[in-house]
Amino acid sequence: MFKWAIFFLIISLIAGAIGLSGISTFARRIAMVLFALFFLSFLALLAFAYLLGSAFEAGRTAAIISLFV
Fold it and tell me: Distance between CA 1 and CA 25 in Å, rounded?
C-alpha cells in the first residue's frame, strides 16, 4: 500500500510539473488516501503488538507466581 502511495505521489508531482493540474489533483488525493490507510493500519498493528506483548507478560507473571504457590 505504501508503494502505491509513493507511486501516485510521483505521478502527481510529474503531472503538476507538466501542467496537468486535474490529473495531479486526482493522483494526490489517491496518494493521500492510500497513505492514510497505510498509517492507520500501521497504528493498529502497533496497538495489537502492544496488547499482545502485555498479554504474554501477564501470562509469564502468572506462571512464575504459580510456581511459588
Answer: 19
